[in-house]
Amino acid sequence: MIYLDNAASTKPTQKTMEIMKETMERFPANPSSTHTMGIQAKKALNQSKQAIASMLGAERKNLIITSSATEATNQALFGMFKRYPNKTMITSTVEHAATKNTLKAIESMGGHVIWIPVDNDGLILISELKKALETYDVSLVSLIYAHNEIGTIQEVNTIIPLVHAYGAYVHLDMVQSIAHMDIDFTKLNADMASVSAHKFHGPRGIGMLYNKVDDLPPLIHGGGHENGKRAGTEDLASIKGMENALHEKRLEHEKREASIKHTARILLDTLKAKSVDFILNGPPLGTNRLNNVLNLSFKDIDSQTLAFELSSEGILVSTGSACSSGEIIASPTLHALGVDHDYIEGSIRISHNHETTAQTMQHVGNVIANMIGEQ
Ligand code: PLP
After folding, report:
1. Ligand 1 atom closest to 146 (CA)
2. DSSP 8-state code for residue 346
3. Residues with CB under 6 A from ligand 1
4. What is the pTM of this model?
5. 171 and 277 part of one domain
6. For atom 16 of ligand 1, which residue has the closest CA?
7. Each residue of 85-125: pLDDT tens digit?
8. Residue 321: its pLDDT value, please?
9. End residue of a domain, out of 251, 266, 294
10. Same domain, 96 and 157
């Protein structure tokens, strides 16, 4: 199988899996227990959180371990709504469901949310953001830093100081950016950020909220875990797995990303050489984008059929579209970008990784070109 769906999830590295197994064997006790084995587990937990914090330029007290980025985002957004129910929240029209549907839930509870549009590359319109900040009393601006469907990286170095100048907080969905960018939370200066381990070859079911807002309330109530910010017995094995995956990612960061960029180029060049009519959605390669999120739209093609045919050749990709009552409904993100009518229903996302070879990407390009020639 050729797995090209790494933006959806990645395989944990061998060492990560070994560390998780070893942790389960070595630390069977509850880290909250006050006996020797509990104390040992707690010490390992604190060491692991400290290691994660140091790698990200954060302080340990600012990390809240969660079950996922979705949970982290729910805590950030519901937490701010609880603190400032009468203030406005701002987001974009291209957010991941974790943000979009949480803010829709907040709207249904009476919250006021402004949805800022994006340009053709998926970059949020900073002039519109500024207008909204001038017009409303804003508590929080929540944005997707690097996009999971189209790869666009937002101009956060401009956006964060702008939002702070209006006295509001910033939350970033950093699920894809942590996986492919060199991140230092201190330099970034966002107030909150959601992270998920399974996008950088760590385990699924573990993530965190980076949080610098002192009085952010918990989402999950119970025991006093995570300094009272998130109850539930800690999953030490997954935390150690996340730590190792992050460590490996940082060690190999440049090598991995150079390979991803090189093989992305090979796929696009192969399609061009075969005169395939397609658009790369989002910014061009080599600009402000993730290179492992290649959202390609093919003219007059049905993406579901194409993905199905690719799957029968052992090539696994995703489509942002959904099929409802026999009709293809293209991704809202592509609509927000204004992708041309003739192309929008023929969009697939190819998400490779650093282990994907040049030969594989050339093969995928050739298979797609042949299939499109036949459709
Ligand atoms: N945000 C983005 C950009 C994502 O790609 C994902 C994963 O699909 C999420 C949020 C949700 O992450 P999790 O699977 O940890 O809930």
Report:
1. 3
2. T
3. 68-70, 96, 98, 144, 148, 173, 175-176, 196, 207
4. 0.96
5. no
6. 70
7. 999 999 999 999 999 999 999 999 999 999 999 999 999 99
8. 61
9. 251
10. yes
